[in-house]
Design a protein that fits this description.
Blueprint (H helix, E strand, L loop, with lengths): L13 H31 L7 E4 L3 E4 L4 E2 L9 E2 L19 E6 L2 H4 L9 H13 L3 E5 L7 H12 L6 E6 L4 H4 L12 E5 L2 E5 L6 H19 L1 H21 L29 H23 L4 E5 L10 H11 L6 H13 L3 E3 L1 H11 L4 E3 L2 E7 L1 H18 L15
Parallel strand pairs: 5-6, 5-7, 7-10, 10-11
Antiparallel strand pairs: 1-2, 3-4, 8-9, 12-13
Helix pairs in contact: 3-12, 4-8, 6-7
């Protein structure tokens, strides 16, 4: 037998083996912990899916086909259909004998805080159908965070393929004016209309910003992982809330009338809008806003479709406690809470656009019945509409539309013909 001798045979290193074993054991424990957390979150029903992604036309848009509910958010089932609308699938072809309404707006119309059947659009659909005596379909084009420019682009690029009989724009007075003008907008990336030489021109410089480009890459590459993993959703949610708080702190002290210490103020809503526009920035913001509204009217006229505007409410306008309103007005220096409503009503009368202001009548009902129409979680009187708010708004809009755009009576039989 020949023995093999030499010094090239590698020697075992016990410490390296131990380190590798410890790393493997730690990795296995970490993986088991992550899987356990994932299972626990699923059993508890915790989910924070992403409902929007980047859109080269509007900045952001709903992700088609997302379906989820989260008991920890107080939300019921949320469904985004295959075309990016909240709610069930909608046929492109106009249903025979059905009055189809395209409802544009932001998070108030989107209504993630309530079940779909309790959104303003569904209350509008049921009530208007009863008043008209014919089937009514309301298509919910609301997307959280949208301003009037994004709603105008939705009209141009998404609405017309559904051949609506009526277009209704829901205008949130608390932030739509600022959303429409970059110098006043504290939000993210979005397109803006700007006046150049007297003409409205679309500014799409957001497409070239690092924030938009990085998020576009993130949403397209990692969206599947986020949508499938509850743990990744939770991490993403914490990250989002942390960045939101940071933005709020950075914007905590803008102009005096928007100071966060004024009772009745809300994050994301401007107090300055309740005052006449006296600064160049606010004058231009209103000029752009009214220009976009006129452009939407012209777009609807070209398509031979009626166009109407409904102004929504903010919590302080419809609080059932008069003393809160009085203190809010005293601190911001306003005489009442309806400056933007009056301005838009006068604009609509001047430009031939029907306008319904919800705040005055809802404020009257709130005081008479001592009911709150806004509630952000357990906090009454602020945030988005609760179920009562959606109902009150939907039924008022339906009654107004039935009067403003009455159903055509059936054609009478010709003389000499059988009835």
């Amino acid at each position: 037998m020949t023995e093999v001798h030499g010094t090239n045979v590698p020697k075992r290193r016990p410490w390296l083996t131990r380190v590798a074993g410890n790393i493997a054991a730690a990795g296995a424990a970490l993986l088991a912990g992550l899987l356990l957390c994932e299972l626990l979150l699923r059993l508890l029903g915790v989910s924070y899916p992403v409902y929007v992604w980047t859109d080269p036309v509007r900045g952001l848009a709903h992700i088609p086909g997302v379906k989820s509910g989260n008991k920890f958010q107080g939300r019921s089932w949320i469904e985004i259909n295959s075309d990016g609308l909240r709610g069930p699938e909608a046929a492109l072809a106009h249903p025979p004998g059905t009055y189809r309404v395209a409802l544009l707006g932001d998070s108030f119309i989107e209504g993630f805080e309530v079940p779909f059947d309790s959104t303003v659009g569904e209350f509008l659909r049921r009530r208007l159908s009863a008043l008209r005596g014919t089937p009514v379909e309301v298509l919910n084009f609301g997307v959280g965070g949208y301003g009037t420019t994004q709603e105008a682009l939705t009209l141009q690029h998404q609405v017309w393929k559904y051949s609506p009989d009526l277009v209704v724009l829901a205008f949130t007075t608390g932030n739509d004016v600022t959303d429409n003008y970059r110098p006043l907008d504290s939000g993210g990336y979005r397109p803006y209309y700007v006046f150049r030489g007297g003409d409205l021109v679309l500014d799409t410089t957001f497409l070239r910003t690092g924030a938009y480009q990085s998020r576009a890459v993130w949403t397209r590459r990692l969206l599947g992982l986020v949508q499938e993993s509850r743990l990744v959703q939770l991490v993403n949610r914490v990250r989002h809330l942390s960045r939101k708080r940071e933005r709020q702190q950075n914007n905590a002290a803008p102009r005096a009338p928007d100071a966060g210490g004024v009772p009745g103020s809300e994050v994301g809503l401007s107090n300055q809008v309740e005052l006449p526009a006296t600064t160049p920035e606010w004058q231009e913001a209103w000029r752009v806003t009214e220009g976009v509204l006129a452009m939407m009217r012209d777009e609807c006229r070209r398509m031979r479709t009626p166009f109407a505007i409904v102004t929504l409410t903010r919590g302080i306008q419809v609080t059932p406690v008069p003393e809160q309103k009085a203190e809010f007005l005293r601190q911001i220096g306003a005489k009442d809470l309806y400056y933007p409503e009056r301005r838009l009503a006068e604009f609509g009368q001047r430009e031939g656009i029907p306008v319904l202001n919800l705040a005055p009548s809802m404020a009257e009902e709130a005081e008479q019945r001592h009911v709150y129409f806004h509630a952000a979680g357990p906090t009454l009187g602020i945030g988005h509409w609760n179920g009562a708010g959606h109902r009150a708004a939907g039924e008022r809009i339906a009654s107004w539309l039935a009067q403003e755009f009455p159903a055509r009576p059936p054609a009478s039989p010709q003389a000499g013909s059988r009835p």
